[in-house]
Write a structure and sequence with these properties.
18 helices; alpha+beta; single chain; 12 strands; 491 residues
């Protein structure tokens, strides 16, 4: 950020750069019970209040983020107020790597992810805690998982943990929380332990935070325990996180709950409101050629951009239906025609050059029999080149936000089967996207929902386990008349 940017923001919010005498009113996303100062002076606390307030002003889409204040307090021990603000702005900005959750939904996803991961990688510790819960569900213990670290660990331990966290993201907290569980179990069951089962039972909710305050190992031993947990890969953690997130979103959608405040990051499932928004769109939008480069057609949007799409695949009425199926946050972005066989030729190489760095993308296919169908693809096609933890190229990639659709002769959406929360689903239910130099595939397991050859001329469609869809065209095999791929500017 530019020098002086922060102080300009402070002037804009408070009218002065002097610290006020009265307490600063904190943004609503702050949890007042967890404004941990970490030995800051009174002035230091006022500075932390100001940094967080300016951040709330600059990032209005943050709706619930209790860890944001404590992390600000920690950083103020090591840097100036301005540097602290710039660091915090960086930590809340990235999409690829999560550092700080910013909605109630994602905060809930984290503790449920920790609980699921712990049941597998710290099983005996979880079983021990469960046995002491007096019929109470262990979920209440895991709800405060991040406060074992941020609120419980001695400051020298916390600083070492945060050093790793700033490098690798929230997965460090997952590992450290598992290490705390393992060390707690080991210490509680030791023959010379000061902790006994009855003491823990009587105050089960505070057992882990109390253990952390007087943790009987050095910071080095804590981290060594955390990073020596085997088979706990980032890929596995991400998969559990995603499945938990999709399950919670589908539950809130099906139950009609309003308790989760909508924001850019917390809501990506279609709602009735998004369909109302679509119907309110202006009829005067037009195509603007060459707004970013002469090689990309950018569609002007006003507030709701769908009417600006001049597609040769389907009519405007059908587009309204498709737009209502998109994640709500995506409908606010400008659609960009990245690739069309009519302008750019029928080549998979050209397809990748024009499309692979965009996320998400919308593929629309019109066959020579006038059937229209396609897919919303949640991840970049470039991910076909990424390697797994063993150094091998991953066959499939993508997330559960991916879905299929049919627009003609029938209109139907086919979301990921895991959104229903079926815990018995196997690997075949997570085969979202695959691609190489010879083909593109969307959906897998006992068939491929959409498969296209390297010339983008012929394809086939079957039922697949990932989306539990019927074949998207009657014959199963199809010849492509037009393929259009759209991206979204700013997504």
């Amino acid at each position: 950020m530019l020098d002086g940017f922060y102080w300009d923001m402070v002037n804009q919010v408070f009218g002065t750069t002097e610290l006020p005498d009265k307490p600063i009113m904190l943004p609503p996303f702050v949890d007042s019970t967890h404004c941990l100062p970490y030995h800051l002076t009174r002035k230091g606390r006022a500075v932390a209040d100001r940094v967080v307030s300016v951040l709330g002003y600059a990032c209005p889409d943050i709706t619930y983020s209790p860890t944001l204040y404590p992390i600000t307090s920690i950083l103020l021990h090591f840097m100036s107020e301005e540097e602290c603000y710039h660091c915090m702005a960086s930590l809340v900005a990235p999409k690829e790597k999560v550092f700080i959750t910013q909605t109630k939904l994602l905060y809930e996803v984290t503790w449920k992810t920790v609980m699921q991961v712990a049941k597998k990688h710290a099983k005996s510790s979880v079983n021990y805690l469960s046995s002491l819960c007096n019929g109470k569900k262990p979920e209440s213990i895991f709800m405060d998982w991040c406060w074992w670290i941020l609120g419980g660990l001695p400051f020298p331990h916390l600083v070492r943990v945060m050093d790793c966290f700033f490098h690798e993201g929230i997965k460090v907290f997952y590992r450290v929380s598992l290490a705390i569980l393992i060390l707690f179990h080991k210490h509680a069951t030791a023959s010379n332990s000061e902790l006994d089962a009855d003491t823990i039972k009587n105050d089960i909710d505070n057992a882990l935070p109390k253990f952390c305050k007087n943790i009987p190992v050095s910071p080095t031993k804590l981290l060594r325990t955390a990073f020596s947990i085997r088979a706990l890969s980032s890929t596995y953690i991400s998969r559990v996180f995603l499945k938990t997130e999709m399950l919670l979103k589908s539950k809130s959608l099906l139950s009609g709950t309003k308790q989760l405040v909508r924001s850019r990051s917390s809501d990506n499932l279609p709602t009735s409101q998004s369909q109302i928004n679509v119907q309110m769109m202006s009829h005067t939008l037009t195509i603007r050629e060459g707004a970013h480069s002469p090689d990309v057609r950018v569609l002007s949007m006003g507030v709701f951009p769908i009417q600006a799409i001049k597609t040769k695949v389907c009519d405007q009425d059908t587009l309204f239906t498709l737009w209502s199926w998109l994640p709500v946050r995506i409908t606010m972005y400008q659609p960009v025609l990245l690739y069309t066989t009519e302008e750019h030729g029928c080549s998979l190489t050209t397809f990748y050059v024009r499309v692979e760095q965009h996320e998400p993308t919308l593929l629309m296919i019109k066959t020579c029999n006038n059937e229209v169908f396609g897919a919303y693809c949640s991840s970049r096609w470039y991910e076909r080149n990424l390697k797994d933890d063993r150094g091998q190229r991953q066959a499939y990639f993508g997330t559960g936000e991916t879905f299929l659709f049919s627009l003609y002769p029938e209109r139907a959406k086919y979301p990921w089967v895991g959104i229903e929360g079926d815990t018995g689903l196997g690997h075949a239910s997570e085969l979202f996207m695959a691609a190489d130099s010879k083909m593109i595939t969307i959906g897998g397991g006992e068939g491929q929902a959409i498969w296209m050859d390297e010339n983008i001329r012929f394809g086939k469609t079957d039922r697949c386990q990932t989306f539990n869809n019927p074949p998207l065209c009657a014959s199963g095999d199809f010849e492509i008349r037009v393929l259009e791929v759209y991206g979204f500017v700013g997504a």
